[in-house]
């Protein structure tokens, strides 16, 4: 399954100044998550956000052109709208969230950022690579890495995240849970 956005739209790179602004937005987003400033992180979401991390299927090479590695009707780790993200954040903030006691310490990194003009004015298509290191202290540490495709919308002098597609290369997670945002 080809990426629909790229096959229908000619990719036009933004200026270095706009690329820098988008890169700063992505770095700030991860800093907010690492510092557990979840309400500030939610404020970066567009009201129509779609935050999607589909499960990856192992397929034979000859089937990739027709089916790709993932499908919208297959299982997803995340398939969230704004209300779902708000509920996840509310759960993280509860003292009874036993899966987060002791709290997970996160370090997120973003790199390989490519920024293109989107389909409409004020919209940007952003590709990036991420790494998320999660530690519960002692000897429990997990690393999740992958690629993201985001659609950002300019709003109020900054950006809002309207769409996020998160792709990890593994067909299964190597950690016990996914109590994090990527």
TrEMBL record:
Keywords, in A-Z order: Aromatic hydrocarbons catabolism, Dioxygenase, Oxidoreductase
Pathway: Aromatic compound metabolism
Similarity field: Belongs to the bacterial ring-hydroxylating dioxygenase beta subunit family.
GO biological process: 3-phenylpropionate catabolic process
Record-given protein name: Ethylbenzene dioxygenase beta subunit
Keyword Transmembrane helix: no
Organism in which the protein naturally occurs: Marinobacterium mangrovicola
Record keyword Nucleus present: no
InterPro entries xrefs: NTF2-like_dom_sf, Rng_hydr_dOase-bsu
Molecular function in Gene Ontology: dioxygenase activity
């Amino acid at each position: 399954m080809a990426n629909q956005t790229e096959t229908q739209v000619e990719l036009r790179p933004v200026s270095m100044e706009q690329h820098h602004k988008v890169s700063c937005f992505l770095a700030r987003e991860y800093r907010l998550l690492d510092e557990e400033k979840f309400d500030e992180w939610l404020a970066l979401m567009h009201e129509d956000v779609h935050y999607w991390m589909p499960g990856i299927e192992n397929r034979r090479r000859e089937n990739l052109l027709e089916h790709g590695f993932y499908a919208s009707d297959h299982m997803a780790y995340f398939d969230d709208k704004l209300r779902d993200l708000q509920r996840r954040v509310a759960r993280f903030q509860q003292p009874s969230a036993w899966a987060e006691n002791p709290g997970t310490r996160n370090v997120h990194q973003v790199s390989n950022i490519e920024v293109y003009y989107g389909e409409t004015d004020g919209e940007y298509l952003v590709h990036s690579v991420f790494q998320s290191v999660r530690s519960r202290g002692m000897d429990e540490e997990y690393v999740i890495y992958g690629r993201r495709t985001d659609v950002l919308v300019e709003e109020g002098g900054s950006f809002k995240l309207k769409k996020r597609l998160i792709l990890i290369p593994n067909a299964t997670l190597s950690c016990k849970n996914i109590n994090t945002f990527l």
